[in-house]
Amino acid sequence: MTVFSLIIINKAGGLVFNKMFHDGLNKISTNDHLVLAGTFHGVHAITTRLNPVNNPGPTPSPATGILTRPEPPSGLEVLESENFRLQCFNTQTGTKFLLFTDTTQANVDVTMRRIYELYSDYVMKNPFYQLEMPIRCDMFDRKLSSYIREINNR
Amino acid sequence: MAHLSAGKPGGVAGGKELATGSGLRYPANGKTIYHRPLNRSKTSELSQASFAYLFSEMVSYALSKVTDIQDLEKRLNMQGHPIGLKLLDLLLIRELPRNQLRPLNIISLLVLIKEKVWQHLFGRQADRLEKSSNADTPDEYMIVDNEPLVNAYISVPKEMSQLNCAAYVAGIIEGVCDGGGFPARVTAHTVGGKEEGEMWPGKTVFLVKFQPEVLERGALIGSEKA
Q1: Fewest CB within 10 A of the end CB: N or C in chain B?
Q2: d(C-alpha A31, C-alpha B43), whole Å
Q3: What string of H, E and C letters represents the secondary structure of chain B?
Q4: What is the C-alpha separation between B207 and B143, in angstroms, rounded?
Q5: Is the pLDDT confidence value at B4 over 60?
Q6: What strand order describes the sheet that includes A3-9?
Q7: B140-145 and B128-131: which strand pairing?
Q8: How far apart are CA B178 and CA B129, in angstroms?
Q9: Residue B99 neighbours by CB under 8 Å, 6+ apart
Q10: What ipTM score was computed for the predicted complex, to two decimals?
Q11: Sign of the alpha-carbon torsion through A37, A39, A45, A51
């Protein structure tokens, strides 16, 4: 059970954060990371449009009568290979979190949620962070590393 | 986070707001923060997240107006100062009538800050209170906070390493000292984070430097025992 690495992609498809937590994957160059982020962003956008269901628009919910929208089409969520599993989490604002884990890793959703929490706390509440720019926040790095270490040692 | 809005008339909560001609806003029911009883402190806790966003915007705003770090700290300090001035009155009035005495010497003032002010603002006491061990600076005292609440989510970039956003809290302390008749200069300094794996990387020291006349007066009336 291992979490290998985390990549964060901004809504324009640029790489804003990447961190390796474990040597289970080969290291790739920063340039390759950028290409991976850009490519994934493109593929994700296309898979979102592949969704065959027509969007019926807002419909009143049977219980309350309040207009609700159906969940937007999600696009690519999981990509699996023999040695790793890539889980993608797309936030409401279009920021993507890609988590590379072991294929046997359980509860990736919970891990992802916690990482998103850390991001909203230590990145979004930091006055020195500029939106859409690479993330350089010590506090985020520190909290993230200790959280992932805890999971990897479990 | 308890009641940081106490000193700010802008912090009106609840009720629909009506705009008036002067630009001042009043809630529709006419009850401003000044109509609320001063002693009600039980339900005055605020969400830390909303404070974090507010403080983050305060820092960004200050950041857009200044050219260097000293200016930025001064601005944050000035934003805290009026809160401190009013907080002293508020905290004293909430005491029991026989305890409503303002501190008359440096130590009792600093203890009030460490215990009452910290408890009110951050829900816990400050971690340590120290007197400067340097004989040349008998006018300096230090209040230590291992993990300042205002810095909870802030990572200062490397190129601004001398900056500590707790300058805002330093301003509040300065306000309390000034309001109590002990004029002082208060600055915030980061002392943690020098080495890897430290327990308190955000440890902050608030250096309280009293004006010479405070010590002079203390020596004259014998209220300060060295």
Answers
A1: C
A2: 53
A3: CECHHHHCCCCCCCCCEEECCCCCEEECCCCCHHHCCCCCCCCCECCHHHHHHHHHHHHHHHHHHCCCHHHHHHHHHHHHHHHHHHHHHHHHHHCCHHHCCCCCCHHHHHHHHHHHHHHHHHCCCCCEEEECCCCCCCCEEEEEECCCHHHCCCCCCHHHCCCCCCHHHHHHHHHHHHHCCCCEEEEEEECCCCCCCCCCCCCEEEEEEECHHHHHHHHHHCCCCC
A4: 7
A5: no
A6: A15-20, A3-9, A96-101, A85-90, A78-80
A7: antiparallel
A8: 19
A9: none
A10: 0.82
A11: negative
Q: Are B209 and B186 in contact (CB under 8 A)?
A: yes
Phi first, then psi: give them for residue B190, nearest 5 degrees.
-80, 130
pTM of the model: 0.82
CA distance A94 to chain B (A): 21
Residue B91 tokens, joined: 């905290």
Q: Pick from A127, A136, A142: which is nearest to B154 by CB?
A: A127
Tokens of B102: 């303002």
Instruction: Identify all chain B residues contacting A128, using CB atoms and an 8 Å cutoff.
Output: 59, 63, 154-157, 160
Spell out which residues of chain A touch residue B156, defining contact as CB-CB under 8 Å: 128
pLDDT tens, per residue, chain A with 154 residues? 789 999 999 999 999 999 999 888 888 899 999 999 999 999 999 998 887 666 667 777 777 778 877 777 788 999 999 989 999 999 989 999 999 999 988 889 999 999 999 999 999 999 999 999 999 999 999 999 999 999 999 8
Residue matched to tokens 């419909």? A59
Of A126, A136, A137, Cβ closest to residue B56: A126
